[in-house]
Write a structure and sequence with these properties.
Chain lengths: 775, 374
């Protein structure tokens, strides 16, 4: 086994303290060690380009906050990264302890801007290196725990009385083994370590006393090896100086953060889960209390009772007992995170847990474990970058909120107005108080898009400042923050493709390129996961608009939108087939089928949509007796207008629906989808005529209402034309169905006058919609 | 170790001539080794093994040469074991074919070294089947004496401090289920016919109840809230890991084919097709996140095994001896879907929209065989 005696020598000039970021145990131990050794300097893994403002961290902030570092890459992309601090962060406690013992405190990591191009994770206190090591997997098996997080807690967190030497040894051993059994140390990690080692050397020259180096445990052994020239894989890169230079696109600042955000990080970005639990645990330990789980159980119970779930005292006793017993079985000194979780799940859940284990009760537990803390920067802190950006942009467009209210109207066709509108929409998306859209063109309903205008109301209120600082946790610039916010909104949507598509419209209005990255996946997942034909086809309709027709929002023809559109199209087809009966929703259903066909006709070639697939689905729907008559008629109509069925087939199908109770519904579907084809084929009208003539009176009356609906799909002129064709085919050429209407000039003028008065009245009373449809 | 059942222990050593020996017979060596290893360590009163050893018995332990017997999450099993150590019973619920009964047998064998105290719940289960009845000849001759009383599993379990298994509890009428109410809370059974101390049978330590209930059948006789309170509910989930499930199906199907002396080959890519289909239809979601309509058929691992087995027999007698996609499709309907025309339609839908788009020869052949889905 490796010899750790050098690494754990507390009398050494440089003591390397390994941490897992956001580990309360590491925080406690690091603080104790610094208090005990009283070193001359404490060097911490953190952005060294923040060193000149490191004192700002000593202000009375409300945690969690984060250092935010951002950079404009040579390829024009903006990237940013967070170094979040909560009260139980080892880095935070090390800083505080250094102040206590009057030690110099410095960050020693390479500025993030330097590694940003290498696509490093943007959460700088993630623990991907430890998490993915093979060592962890084998240790989990050996110790009988289920995951890295559980393993870490078992080894380091649960036992509060671990001696500092033992802790150091264990943590060094664990992190070193992770490193040794891991594949390769990444290039950017090697560069960072070289930089950190150089910083340590420099500090050794600068300070006379001892030095404590607090870094991620993965790096500790490497720094030690570099400093003492010991062999270790991944330490052969020579010392490195930062490449990135100061520039206009680069900056670093403090910004508020939240537990919600910390908990939502996954994959390579993931850190310690359940900040709410560790927060409570930290404060309990600080106060000398040992029963963190009881307070959390109390909160879960309170939350459940608030949500009208019945939780009796006996239930709580059972949950507590089960949790205690699990802790005993697992050898935990006190009831731990997943003991409580399992205790509650075991004792309180009385139903089958669905696949994926979602349950209102467990949701409440997760919410309590997540914690609701939101950070706030102390007065005197440099303002977060978002606030600066936002003020600057508002000023530029003369949109600053003033105590005196202002009403603005913008015309989206005018480029300058369009920019203002985007800015206002971004403010709206971020929930910054003082900007309200009062009215304007309904771009969602798309009733009349000839001119696109918006009315806005802008007024200052005391909440304006607070909400803009609050919003800075979403990002340093308005565009990034608004995109992030939309991303969060998208994640909050549950199985609703239409809402997801509307979100895209919102993004278009705010001029945000939200389809970059994770949001595209979220929206794709929403479309794939939605099982409701009506919602998915409505989403398809919005997407089709954005991709094909939109000129105002300038989204037309974007390839990523095309991918989404193809996804929505495939999903709509899929759902159409399994639709079955949907009474009372015929209109929506037909609109859905129309959207599918329109998507195919307009974009089929661009997006390589498969005609065979569409025809196969429509054929199956047309034949499927479990489907309603309307969709079956629509499917046949669709096939006909696609040229996949000819008139004789359609006529044969017509006879199949000859029953008076079904005929009208069938024709509604058919006419809606094959309006033009029907007019081109007089023989169909003839067959229909024969069918109707064959009806007895009662049968005809039964069929009449739905027949009338079916024929509303034709304009009066089309109906007239159909009647003429019918008469001609029947050989009744001389008979004219309608005598030409003779209208005197006077009567026409009267009618026009009446119409003008009518529209005037409609407008006066604000009745919309009627005028559009009668045109 | 149980004392009163020493007579039963004799056949336990040699279970080989039995069709299906109980777990405590089949694995008696493993149980002996575990018991020896945890000798003297604290355990719940009346248990033959410590809770940690119970986990080892179920999940296997290399050091003591104990084979793994069940695929599932560790924390789930820890919850089950802990529930049995508290004053509540354990209710295992889940889809048919998720190995609930098997798990309850393993737990009873590990904890009490006796998995035979089993009540089979059905519409016809009566109080006599659960508590006790009388040997009427003796009852008439001697009156209500211990000799005349014929103990049913619950009586026996309480008397000897053992785990009692109640299979398919929700298939019993609700008033029969509620017999457990007072027994689980007061841990006493009253025998009103007897006199003196014998009127009340107090449960010895070590007694508890593992009930199983099938979520498809629930609703026929819904459980009372009072009884629910006395149980910890644990959902036995289907196997979440595709690779693990594939390995299990492959192994079990091959075992069954070997037992039937049918030398058919089941290529691993065929198992993959089959298990992927089962997995996706059960989860209601494809591997790439597309939602599927839920089926009424339980797409359990056990059904996947029997489909693979049937396909193997088919391939041997009517084919080349190697299972191909066509065999699987034919038996999907017969073995798994049985009589559910709605589900067969959904299966066709699955083939038309999911299987069709999959790459690879095996998937393609599988799709081509969809004509058998009738």
């Amino acid at each position: 086994m490796t010899d750790f005696s050098e690494l754990v020598d507390l009398a050494a000039r440089v003591v390397f303290f390994p941490v897992r970021h956001h580990s309360p145990a590491c925080a406690r131990q690091a603080r104790a060690l610094i208090r005990r050794l009283r070193p001359a300097a404490v060097l911490i893994e953190g952005p060294s380009d923040f060193n000149d403002r490191i004192d700002e961290l000593a202000l009375p902030h409300r945690l969690p906050i984060a250092i935010y570092s951002y950079v404009l890459l040579p390829n024009g992309n903006r990237r940013g990264a967070y170094y979040p601090f909560c009260v139980y962060s080892p880095e935070w406690q090390a800083l505080a302890a250094a102040r206590e013992v009057n030690a110099a405190a410095r960050f020693i990591d390479l500025p993030w801007a330097d590694v940003a191009a290498a696509d490093a994770p943007s959460h700088r206190y993630a623990d991907g290196e430890l998490r993915r090591s093979r060592y962890v997997a084998s240790l989990c098996r050996r110790l009988g725990v289920e995951s890295f997080d559980a393993l870490w807690d078992t080894l380091f967190e649960v036992d509060a009385n671990l001696a500092p030497e033992e802790f150091l040894k264990r943590c060094h051993a664990f992190c070193l083994h992770c490193r040794l059994l891991d594949a390769a140390v990444s290039d950017s990690d090697q560069r960072r370590e070289a930089f950190m080692a150089a910083e340590v050397r420099q500090a050794l020259e600068q300070y006379t006393g001892s030095i404590v180096v607090v870094t991620g445990g993965y790096h500790s052994s490497a720094l030690h090896a570099r400093l003492h020239e010991r062999p270790l894989p991944g330490t052969d890169t020579p010392d490195c100086t930062p490449r990135a230079v100061e520039g206009p696109g680069r900056g670093i600042a403090l910004t508020p953060y939240s537990y919600e955000r910390l908990d939502s990080l996954v994959g390579y970005e993931a850190g310690m889960p359940n900040p709410g639990f560790y927060h409570q645990f930290w404060h309990d330990r600080e106060a000398g209390r040992r029963v963190t789980h009881r307070e959390l159980l109390r909160r879960v119970a309170a939350m459940l009772r608030e949500r009208k779930q019945q939780i009796s005292a006996a239930d709580l006793i059972a949950a507590e007992t089960t949790a205690q017993a699990l802790a005993a079985l697992r050898g935990h000194a006190e009831v731990w995170r997943w003991d409580l979780l399992d205790g509650i799940a075991g004792a309180l859940v009385k139903e089958e847990l669905s696949y994926g284990c979602a349950h209102p009760l467990l949701d409440a537990v997760h919410e309590v474990f997540r914690g609701g803390e939101r950070g706030m920067l102390a007065e005197g802190t440099t303002l977060p970058p978002l606030v600066t950006d936002l003020r600057q942009q508002l000023q530029q467009h003369d949109l600053e909120p003033l105590p005196r209210p202002r009403d603005l109207e913008v015309d989206l066709a005018v480029p300058a107005d369009r920019a203002r509108s985007q800015l206002l929409h971004r403010m709206r998306v971020l929930g910054i108080v003082g900007f309200r859209r009062d009215g304007g063109t309904d771009i969602v309903g798309r009733a009349d898009l000839a001119t696109v205008r918006e009315q806005w109301h802008v007024q200052w209120s005391p909440d304006y400042e607070a909400t803009s600082i609050e919003a800075s946790r979403y990002g340093p610039t308005l565009v990034e923050a608004a995109s992030e916010r939309l991303g969060e909104d998208a994640k909050a949507i549950e199985r609703d493709a239409e809402k997801a598509a509307l979100l895209l419209l919102d993004a278009g209005l705010a001029g945000l390129d939200v389809l970059a990255g994770a949001l595209l996946q979220t929206i794709t997942a929403l479309i794939r996961g939605d099982g409701d034909f009506f919602k998915v086809s409505a989403a398809l309709n919005h997407l089709l608009y954005l991709y094909r027709y939109d000129s105002v929002l300038q989204t037309a023809g974007r390839p990523d939108l095309g991918t989404l559109l193809a996804e929505g199209y495939a999903r709509s087809l899929w759902l159409l087939e399994g639709l079955g009966q949907a009474p009372g929703r015929d209109r929506e259903l037909l609109r859905g089928v129309q959207s599918i066909l329109e998507a195919f006709e307009r974009c089929g070639q661009d997006l390589a949509l498969d005609r065979e697939d569409l025809v196969a689905v429509l054929r199956r729907v047309a034949r499927d007796t479990a489907q309603g008559h309307v969709p079956r008629g629509a499917a046949i109509g669709g096939l006909w207008s696609l040229g996949a069925a000819d008139a004789s087939e359609v006529r044969a199908d017509l006879l199949r629906f000859a029953d008076p109770a079904r005929l009208g519904d069938f024709l509604t579907g058919l006419f809606c989808l094959a309006r033009e084809a029907v007019q081109r084929h007089p023989d169909l009208v003839l067959s229909l005529d024969q069918l109707l003539v064959g009806y007895a009176d009662e049968e005809f009356l039964e069929a009449l209402p739905s027949l009338r609906l079916a024929f509303t799909y034709f304009t009066p002129r089309e109906k007239h034309h159909m009647a003429l064709t019918l008469l001609e085919t029947l050989g009744l050429k001389t008979e004219r169905p309608l005598t030409a209407l003779e209208v005197s000039q006077r009567a026409a003028a009267q009618a026009l006058g009446f119409e003008a008065r009518l529209y005037g009245a409609l407008q006066r009373f604000g009745i919309r919609g009627v005028t559009g449809e009668t045109k | 170790m149980p004392r009163k059942t020493a007579d039963k222990a004799t056949p336990a050593k040699s279970g080989s001539e039995l069709q299906r020996p109980a777990s405590e017979m089949l694995y008696s060596d493993e149980l002996d080794r575990l018991a020896k290893a945890d000798m003297g360590q604290p355990r719940p009163l009346g248990w033959t093994l410590t809770p940690a050893s119970v986990l080892k018995f179920v999940f296997g332990d290399e050091a003591l040469d104990v084979q793994p017997k069940f695929v599932g999450s560790r924390s789930f099993l820890e919850r089950c074991v802990v529930a049995l150590a508290t004053n509540r019973g354990l209710m295992l619920i889940g889809e048919p074919g998720t190995a609930k009964s098997y798990l309850s047998e393993l737990l009873a064998a590990a904890i009490s070294r006796d998995s035979t105290l089993t009540i089979q719940g059905s519409a016809g289960t009566s109080e006599d089947n659960i508590k006790y009845s009388w040997n009427y000849a003796l009852l008439l001759a001697e009156g209500p004496t211990e000799r005349a009383l014929v103990p049913a599993p619950l009586y026996h379990g309480m008397q000897t401090g053992k785990i009692v298994r109640f299979e398919e509890i929700t298939r019993c009428p609700i008033e029969i289920q509620d017999i457990l109410l007072s027994i689980l809370s007061d841990r006493v059974m009253s025998v009103p016919e007897m006199h003196g101390d014998a009127r009340s049978l107090y449960a010895r330590t070590g007694f508890n109840v593992i009930a199983t209930a099938n979520t498809r059948d629930r609703g026929v006789n819904e459980m009372s809230a009072a009884l629910k309170r006395r149980f910890n509910f644990e959902t036995v989930p289907p196997i979440a890991d595709l690779a693990q499930e594939m390995a299990l199906v492959q192994r079990e199907a091959e075992k069954m084919l070997a037992r039937a002396e049918v030398p058919a080959t089941l290529p691993p890519e065929m198992t993959e097709l089959l298990v992927t289909t089962f997995h996706e239809l059960r989860a209601g979601e494809t591997a790439d996140g597309k939602a599927l309509e839920p089926l009424t058929t339980a797409m359990s691992t056990a059904e996947a095994v029997s489909t693979a087995y049937a396909a193997g027999i088919h391939a041997y007698y009517y084919g080349s001896g190697t299972v191909v996609g066509e065999h699987l499709v034919q038996h999907l309907v017969g073995s798994a879907f049985k009589d559910a025309p709605e589900d067969i339609k959904k299966l066709q839908h699955y083939f038309n929209h999911v299987v069709k788009g999959r790459k690879g020869k095996a998937w393609h052949e599988y799709y081509e065989a969809r004509k058998h889905l009738l």
